[in-house]
Amino acid sequence: MIRQMGEPMKSKKELYPVSDTAALVMLWASEYYRTKPLTNAYLSGLDLSSGEKLLRCYDRICPWYPEVIVNRKYFISHTVKALTLADDAPVTIVNLGAGFSPLALEMAPLLSDTRHFIEIDLRGMSRKHQLYSELVPEQCGFISCIEADITEPGSLLDALEPRRSSEALARLIVVMEGLTYYIGRAEMEQMLDTISTLTQSQIIIFEHLKPCRLISNERRFIPYEIFSHVRDHIAYDRMTTYSRDEIPSMLSPAFSCRYYDMSDMERLRIGGTRYFPTAESGWLSCAVAERGALSKPL
């Protein structure tokens, strides 16, 4: 059962309020989500008005910033689908720090008894699952939305405990989107160590900010001004960045990494480059780290 495009999920007074920074990302990505019936209907159930002030502020810095988020969303969705369909083996997809990103909804048609999706974040997960149940009632049984602190090893393991003994966890795809900026390096290494104990066959999609030195001079001001403001707005000490050489050092040598810059993501999405002609013109990158049998290049 799928609602038709544009059909509202709830009346205006029943919209679920989303925090300003989370709403900002959803507003940036709205062009991407509005093109699909399921995610369009999902978006209609959220109140994103809290993010409008931030959106206007950042529009003055970079009016085409939605391209960054749409490229990222498209790349991660495409990657997860390709990896899930790479073979018929049972698989569990875990979206860490999922927030209100409806990645599970995009994956819903592929989910089954042997393909499960787990979303984990500190809050809002029960409401998110309720929205899913209204949109994809037949598939929502394969989706778990769990409230847990992913930076605490015990909490993360407890969240995954129901699946740890199942066949579906024999193969694991872990998504870290928009997450690594806000977690310190020591906590991230601890999280990766915890994940590594779950199963031998796993893939980690590690999207991250790049250090300023790896961004072209003419573009460097964009992430600096936006993320400096975000950092101050949420009273955060600093954003964490990674170069491609630093990511393998946090993983066991058994992992093999492929890297994708924003130019690669844009090329995958539109078949060419418009805003990101070179790797240095973007400030986000994504490592796809695999342990076990390697999938084909994306």
Mean pLDDT: 91
- Kindly estimate the percentage of residues that lie in beta strands according to DSSP: 15-25%
The DSSP helix count reads 11
Helix proportion? 25-40%
Radius of gyration: 18 Å
Spatial separation of the terminal alpha carbons = 31 Å
Shape assignment = globular
Strand arrangement within the widest β-sheet reads 5-4-3-6-7-9-8
Q: What's the main sheet like?
A: 7 strands, mixed
Query: How many DSSP E strands?
Result: 9
**Order of helical and strand elements:** EHHHEHHEHEHEHEHEHEHE
**Structural class label:** alpha/beta
The low-confidence parts are 1-8
Please explain how this structure is put together.
The chain is of the alpha/beta class. It is built from eleven helices and nine strands. The protein has helices at residues 20-28, 30-34, 37-43, 52-61, 66-84, 103-107, 125-135, 153-164, 185-196, 221-233, 262-270; strands spanning 16-17, 46-47, 91-96, 115-121, 143-147, 171-176, 201-209, 256-261, 284-291. It has a seven-stranded mixed β-sheet, with helices on both faces. Helix 6 links the parallel strand 3 (91-96) and strand 4. The longest helix has 19 residues, at 66-84. The chain is globular, with a radius of gyration of 18 Å. The model is unreliable at 1-8 (pLDDT under 50).
